[in-house]
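Appendix B, Record 12. Input sequence as logged:
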Amino acid sequence: MKARKLVSISLLIFAFLSLAGAACPQTAPLEPAQMPARTSFYFLWRGLPSAEARKSSALFSLWDDPDFAPMRSGIIESFANHAGKDEAKKQMARQSFDDFATLLENPFVFGFLGKPDSVVKSSGAKWQGIFFVYDRSGKEALLTKTVLAMRAQGQETPQISQVTIADVPALKIERKTGASYWVETGKYAVSANDPAVLEEILPVLLHKSAPPATLTASAEFQEAQPLLGSGLFEFFLRIPRIKEFPADNSVKGFKIAPLLDALKLDSVHSVAGHATLEGGRTRLQGAVLGDPSPSTLFDIWSQAKSAPASLSFVSPDTVSYNSGQFNLLALYEIAKRAMRMYMPPSPQGGPDLIESIAQSRLGMSIPDALGLFTGEFASIQTSPSLDAAKQSYVLKITKKPETLKLLRTILSDRVESEKTENDVTFLKISLSGSQTASGTAQWNFYHVAVTPDMLLASSRSETLRQLLAERRTSVPGNEYSTLPKFQSARSQFPAELSSISFLDFQRLDWQAVKDKWLTDAKSAARKKKTVAQGGEAAKQQPEGVAIPNWLSSANPQVLSHHLHFMAGASWKDAKGLHFDQWIE
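Logged structural output:
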């Protein structure tokens, strides 16, 4: 677990919570039962939850906490700083942020309609199926203000004209890059880049007519329906069938349809999911649905397991753990199928040549080399401050001697040292070299430990030795898997999993985390300044280094009051690959 993952959590908080007010979820402006059958994608935001739900939710209560106010202000200020040095532009950006947050109190739908047959059959016809429908109830004036401000941005002044689409007045906004259309009618604001899209959407919104066939009638939607219909938001993406791609459609000379056929894209039907509030939890559930028969894209995920082998390295002091199981041989076969489309097997080239080169350089075939790894990958973080030196990575292996031989072959002269202690072989690997102004050489190293069944890696050898010691001295009944919080999280998921992860917020030293972030931010900013100024002089000017305001103003203790635990998992079954993650 690196610092950037905690930053991504902050962005998750921002995405959910940078919203003003406490409105209740409303009816969506366009439900799937109203969308045309050709709808291939939609994202539906149902508006903010009720005040009571916000109070119960860990994330929303964090955002509303007065002690979090400086960080809220810092986030908004960082947003404004992207507008540049012009103070007027910064003030406009701050106001835009506030306006945008207020607009998100109401529901909206963003989606895409697939090409109609008339466009598919028309040679050279371009289709832009994007649409946006917003419930502007109570936000009419604010919406107008925001739209006008957005149109005013940029160097080009758009040409605006009045047109009529589906018997409704509309604005046509033309720029050099193309045209878009904007309609405000009744309680709705609607936008699209193609008038044909509005001709389908507007009659449904105004209750004048219904589409001849709706999205809910499609097999893909019905397959995904258990994941849809509730929550803060939901999303649905129908994966196009190969026959829907024109035979001559290509990218840089490579035809798309044959490649997708080789990858067996038709085995994947859709991607769908939703986010819900469940008391203190914010939960995201979804799936990649399709036909997980053998020799399809679903082969990438190996057979699920009840407990990953790397879990034996996890101690009660572990802060975060992530483990996934992949089928490396299947992934290689999928890549070969794709290569064969453009590189036919032959003695002079293609996959056969790649196999031959690998055999000569590795001393074994690619399948044999991949077979040395079971496909289980894990990362473990034991530092309360998220120190990268305490981060380690674990790979499950099958044969230690052959794995060591492969490592020596691949790494060659980068192996600085090697020694064996009992049944563990330690390797010190040189990553890269650099030179200071005084001419002193500096080298970056990584450390690897190979046991009879595992390969461990870290930037510090001490971290590996501590991890190995934890495994050797683990007392039965005191493993992490026996802790109530882990058992409680594990019970939320099926018995056999393709991946599992957790982050224990309560084990973090938030002040130390903040201090580390500040140090890293200053170091990155100083390095950027040094490069910009082109010399060592900039290194002597730390006072000019800027760091994000939201980070410097953060009160780390408020995070510990609201954030307790995050867990997630994925698993494969007869319907596809499912994922479930929650934070509380």
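Residues 301-495 form one domain.
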